[in-house]
Each structure stands twice: as C-alpha cells, then as structure tokens.
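Quick log. Single chain, no ligands specified.
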Amino acid sequence: MLQTGVLGVKEKRLEELYAIILDKLDIGVHVVDTSGRTLIYNRKMADLEDISPEEINGKAILEVLDLTPEASTLLTSLRNHTTLENKKQTYLTSKGTQVTTVNSTLPLFADGQLIGAMELAKDMTYIKQLAEKVSDLQQELNQKHPTITGCQPTTRYSFADILGECEPFLQAVYNARQAARTDSTILIHGETGTGKELFAQSIHRASPRASKPFIAQNCAALPEELLEGLLFGTSKGGFTGAVDRPGLFELAQAGTLFLDEINSMPLRLQAKLLRVLQERTMRRVGGLREIAVDVRILSSCSLDPEQAVRQQLLREDLFYRLSVVTIGIPPLRERKEDIPFLTKTFTDRLSLRLAIPKPEILPNTLDLLVKYSWPGNVRELEHIIEGSLNLMPPDEPLSPHHLPLYLQKRLQLSHCSGNGLRAVTEDLEKEKITLALQECLGNISQASQKLGISRQSLQHKLKKYKLV
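-> predicted structure:
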C-alpha cells in the first residue's frame, strides 16, 4: 500500500510537471481523441486562438471553433490517418483578431490503434506582417523611385567594388562581367562572406536591366508558406485573410531577382520556381490568372551546387535551369596573396570613414593575417580591420596585439611553436624598445615617454628581455 501510494504521488507530480512544461512552450499544442474531443490544449494555443483551456477541454472542437470537418486539420488527420506538415493557416479568432500559424498535424497511435491526433502550431503572424511590409515598401519604392542615376536604388555595389588580384578571383570577376551582358540565369556559389550578393548586384548594374528593379531575397529567412506568398504574391479569397498583393516576381518585373541561399528553398517551392523558369508565367497564391514573368534570375548557393544536389537540397532539374552560367568565388584561404592588398584597402577606406589617421601596417601583422584560415572570408577580414582601428591609440602602427582577442587565441592555438603569435609579439616589442633606447641614447626616462609606458614598466621589460 505504501509503495503504491508513493508511486501515485510520483505520477501526480510527473503529470503536474508535464502540464507546467506544456504551458511554458512557445508553440501551440492541441491534442484530441478519436472523436475530436480536446484532451490537451496548452497556454500558447489558448493565446493564439483567444480561447481559454477551460472553454475547450473535454469538448468537441467543432462545438467551440468556427470550423467545418473539412477545414479542421486535426479532424482531417484523424479521418485520413495522415500527417500534415507545415500547413499555413490564416484565420480570425473569436475576438476577431487575424492570426497566421504554420501547423504540423499528425495522428497518434498506440499498439497499432488510432488514439487521437496532435497539432503543433507556430505563431507566424508577426513574421507574416514583416514579410508583407517588405513587399509593400518594395512596391512603393519601385513606384516612387524607378531609377536613380540609371540604377535601382536597392543596389549599392558595382564591379569597381570587387577587390582582388589573384588569378582565380580575377577569372570569376571576368566571367561575371561577360555574363552580365545577357539575360541567362547565373548561379553564384561560394562560402559565407565571399561576396555573393556583391557579385549579383554588380552583374545587375552592368546588365541591360540596370535601370530596372533589383530585388534580393534570402530563401532561408522565411518558412515555406510565407516565402511562397512573398515570392509569388497572394490573391484575395485564395485563403482566409488573403489580400491582393504582388509578389517579388511582379515587383522585379523587367529587372533582376536574386534568390540567395537557393539550396534552403523547400523542394516544393523549387518545383514551382522551375515551372516559372520554363513557362515564363506564374500564378499568385490562391489565384487563377496566369501572369507573364520577365525577370532575370540570379541565385546563390553557399554549398558546392553538385553537393547540394547530391544531398537533395537542390533539385537536379532546377540546378540545370539556374546554372546556365556558374560562377565560383574562391574562399580567402585560397587567395592569400590578396590579403596584404585587401588589408591596406580596408585600412585606408575605414580610416577615412572613422575619421582617424591611416596607420602603418607592420609586416608582422600581415604575416599573421596571411597565416589565418579565414572561415568568415573577406567579410571577416573587413570586420577585423574595423575592430582593430576602433581600439588603436593614435599614431600607433597596426600591430599583432591590436587584432581581436579571438583571432589572437586561434593563432596561438594553431602556432604553438616559437614562431607563434606570442613570440612574434615579443620580438616586435623588443625591437621597439631597442630602437627607442638607441634614439634616446640609453635614457630610460625619455625612452619610456617615447614608448608611452611608465619608467617602471620599461625597466621590467628590459629585465624580461635581458636587454640590460
């Protein structure tokens, strides 16, 4: 009896724990039995639908929610024993608030018998509103400012902004310049930070479509249902809450649409994009009218495209459509001869922007930058230079100890021998102290002032480096 009682207490506490966890989740959970009566309805789902759990628990969902058996994803899952994944729903709550959710619904089985169904709902209302705002602002921008000095205002870069001198990189730039002259699709691939959008904007600026819109969309930034509406637009009445809104294909008409991270686009949307490329027409989501599409498609992939195809992240037939021209941008670790040139260029440019004097770049600093592997590529190099310039005292050269701490640590780990960062920094420090003493004829007080450190610190360093 005592043992049973202890187990009963444990089970009760476990149930209470489950209830607390369910109510803390930032995702709606709704579970029904085989008759469609609610068993579990957590706080997030209640917030989404403006219904308290007490109003719906134990009741058939059709008694409480304004739904038909066909419209209810839970009842559909029960009826057909099917899983419905990432289905977008836009509906009005009992208080008249419009919400947009992306739901996954699945039947629940125990010992091979159907016992109910569960729905998981992610609130996408805010993201949907942001996506629609982006679309509306882009449309307004196109209408008010169709051209600025012959170029769409959303483009900042041209081929003059692409920096590099090594042969593989120059070949990529040459190929991009050549391909800019036509309307063929171009697939740009390269690691994060190599400058894929910079290439895309430059191609547009050098193309016959330069005076028309350039619109970029990151395919990894939105869930499938919202990305589809943003790209292709929506038609009023197509689904609950839908309004007539042009998508990015229509807003980019006669111009260029850059689809960044195309390998992150869901395969169903890739099939729809393939049809647009083949037919040169599209329909809005929920629409019936075919709309002619005159848009040049540029796309990018952070993976090697063939690897993306093998991993089934990119449809093979779409790959062939997108890659009429393929441009591969080499990572910075494969073009290290460009690092001194890029470092000087970024230092000059950022010094001007930050309104500070241009510092000298010590050879030891360049040596270290060349040795680094640069996982963030050119973008990381530019950010490192900017960060270093912000922290440097005036009139000092750009030295190894000015580099960000994370970079110093990585270089120390990768160069554990006497030629590591610490050794290089110490050699530089000894060199500066020796030079200061020579210029001050051995006067320690004058040398410490010249070096910008206290006399006591200089004496400590003289002993440390055995210079006395």
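The CA atoms of residues 336 and 434 lie 32 Å apart.
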